[in-house]
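User: Can you write out an input/output pair for a complex, sequences first and structure second?

Assistant: Here is one pair. Inputs:
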Amino acid sequence: MQKIGVFVCWCGSNIAGTVDVEAVAEAMKTVPGVVFSTHYQYMCSAAGQKLIADAIHEHHLDGIVVASCSPRMHENTFRKTAEAAGLNPYMVEIANIREQCSWIHKDKEEGTAKAIVLAKAAVAKLLHNKPLTAGTSAVTKRCLVIGGGIAGIQTALDVADAGYEVDIVEQRPTIGGRMAQLDKTFPTLDCSACILTPKMVEAAQNEKINIISYAKVEKVDGFVGNFRATIRKKARCVDETKCTGCSLYMNKCPSKKGKDEFNMEMNNRPAIYIPFAQAIPNVAVIDPEQCVKLKTGKCGLCQKVCTAGAIDYTQQDELMEREYGAIVVATGFKPIDPSPLNEYGYAENADVITSLELERLMNAAGPTKGTLLRPSDLKHPHEIVFIQCVGSRCDENTKRGKPYCSKICCMYTAKHAMLIRDKYPDTKVHVFYIDVRTPGKNFDEFYRRAVEQYGVDYIKGMVGKVAREGDKLMVRGSDLISNQQVEIAADLVVLATAIEPDPSARSIGTMLTASMDTNDFFTEAHAKLRPVESPTAGIFLSGVAQGPKDVPETVAQASAAAAKVIGLLAKDHLVTNPCVAGSDELLCNGCSQCEKVCPYGAITYVDKEVRGPGVREVRRVAQVNPAVCQGCGACTVTCPSGAMDLKGFTNQQIMAEVDAICL
Amino acid sequence: MSVNNPNWKPKIVAFCCNWCSYAGADLAGSGRMNYPADVKIIRVPCSCRVNPLFILRAFERGADGVIICGCHPGDCHYTSGNYYARRRLTMLFSLLDYLGIERDRTRVEWVSAAEGAKFAKTMNEFVETIYSLGENRKLSDIRCKKS
Amino acid sequence: MQEIMNRMKARAIALLADGTVSRVMGWEKGEGEYDWSPALFENAEEMEAFVYGDYAGANLSKYCLKLGKLEGKTLVILKPCDTLSFKQLIHEHRLEREKFYIIGAGCTGMKDEKGALLKCNACKSKEFAIYDEIIDSEESRKPTGVMDRMAGVADLEQMTAQERYDFWQGELSRCIRCNACRNVCPACTCIKCVFDNPASGVQSKAPVTSFEENMFHIIRAYHVAGRCTDCGECSRVCPQNIPLHLLNRKLIKDMNELYGEYQAGEGDEERTPLTSYTKEDAEPGIVHERGRA
């Protein structure tokens, strides 16, 4: 007979308020197997834990039930307490009498009765517990960073700095991401490229960092410490090892219809191109959709001018398999397409642009070489209207946009307004806004400068309609402060469009089994306390992939993710979850049904001599790799003979709980 | 039946997956969202761990209703567990229905870790349904009933 | 059928003689006129007792589990529907193909003392899912038994829940837990059944309560769901004449309706409807909705 101790926690008044803890402790004394039962104010406190440890020694307990808060809260705490007192940590069961009892039931009698049942169920389960020993698995000391924007670059630099190898997989031909497209950054107004490109170079020159550009992660298997990724490096038809980035071909290429993605498709580029001057790798890429040679077989001009002999039209996609201990998701964002919000007339009017398009129009490397000209007639705009919250903060039920605040728009609009007023003092600038949100260091000062020093006209209200009249854009909206309808004849309208996760995020999330919210942002392991980790072990979050944020926040989170990665890679071995499936060879039919439902490929079959009472023969039997099994239990239900069982949640344990609850 | 015994309280077993629904139940608790004490939760790693034997066993031992909660399809912590659970439980429920057992004594609900309110609402509804069905007589094992 | 039997016998004796096979799994006559039972023959003399014909209804697939462990090849005679059971056991890695020589036996529908067998009234197929050679006739290739095999299930579905409950209580309460249904079933092949395993928590030898036979039969049907070929042996051998096939067929009907047409043992896919899924599968609530409609 086992000796079980029961420890009922008051949790101050959280439990004791609606559950008679003394009565629970008393009732548990009569349960078969229980040799000791008590209650205490805070079991999780040092004094509470000492009480448990003392009882384990004094009563020679071989299992304990703690009736307290959710096991998601303190199961680990009490397992450690038990372990320190010489008990196997898996001889601990928690009865959740707070979240699932005292907090939801007002009636003390009812709450007490339920707490007793829950504690009895925990004892019933515990009577079937077996001591479990966690195994270990080795850690591959290499990190995969998916996405080569500022978030991915910063994480990679920090991880590499600690001495670990990092692969950055970037879907575009160059790293740099969205930040590379920005002209200036708020609130300091320093040039974005000037602060980003040194980091890009640093990443490229770091011997621990391997940049795999124009590539995507196709498949990920494995688990924390032991991931295996298949990466598809797309054929760029240019040999990366030979290309010098000379750009001689640019004028030779007869195809000029490719849209320049870097400049938000506001101008065209040749079929062979380098996205921007400071691209890394500084290697050309051929757009297979536009290349005359690839489409018709005739041309080959770029090959003729290339003195390095780097052009190879026959290049094929390359599949590479790499192993990693940790994976960082830094997939970033894109602005939404505001076309469906037809009141803004984005689709119809060339002079209604998004803020990111404005960034390119203001940038010296942009389509207008940095002179602010409106797209329709390349004239200088004299009256500009900015519209905030386009597609952000929308009622979820209307499906017109995103329910969340995109966070960066208030600040970059103030930046745009200020820069325009500074460079073109003859230009009037109006901003329609719902609220101005500036909670950041030097942010509100920045915004006030736009209003007070640069005379930007902020109008609290929404825009109802943007319509072309002659060469003007008539912007009709409401001014909620003066309670009037306003109409502005603008030359240019700039939409502060909401940002959304990069379209690649969803498939990456599925591949990594990393959970995402309804907006496709990755979810954190804990919203407050574990903000840079995914709930899936070994997956870390960096940058906007987790939620809207500006550059400094992105960099801070990227470094935080790197710290978590370093903490993981610094370990030689990880302790594995001992609650894994296992097959009873004497019962196993070898029917291969369980293998079919295992999401991790943890089950294999071997022909093996099976020995038991009256049995000695070679049979095909299932074997579970405990390092790969994650303990879901799918196999256990598929197994008709009950040979497959799950440690920690065995058939007997669950049946015992069922019985205890129903009797 | 309940009409005859005003003191009758139903016994309801709720199997909740560790990652979504159990956390959802915890959230219902921290939000102080009430639902009847008749519901007792058993934590399982995943809805795919719920063996039909457990459900039948519960009914055999006198449960009046059994509800299984898991992550929403597509959000399973183990990628595919709830997809298998969905087929298995559909087949089991259909077979029970075919045997003439009240189909409303069984239910599956997908509850995420963020859906504390949904958890409480689901439990309130389910308990109400079980009250209207009354005591489970078709499935229970008479030996196991307390007199 | 006499002609098929003669050819089959001659072929079997030849295969025994040239050492291709070490034994023959077939049928022999028993005491009564209809009482043909599975039998093993090891040489030409023993083959004198071999019979094949209208009463060779028994599905020999399950016997192969033991025969597959013996030295040498076994010749097994399989009717078209029997080949599905055999192939399903191959899918489950319970049988090794190379341990058997399969003669596909032409079948014109099997009988017992009460007439055509249940499975033959709704004959699934005249195709052989697996074979080494086929011995059949013009006659045996013609379709037989074209009744709707789901008719009985559909009738029950039309009843009220209480009527269904009463029907099944009436049927299942006669169960004596002789385990004949389990022992004959070519899908029920566990080395040790959960109901025989003290550690499973559901072990029991005889029905003690009104619920236990329900539980046994629910789980029996459930455990073979997706693997049951609907061979009907369970109902054929039940000494209490419980229409157990109606449970299996209900699951087959549901799986076909919800997850697409599927016949266990057909094709080469080892996954069954319960070891596969689609993201768009029906929710379990469909059972409730269907009931209310």
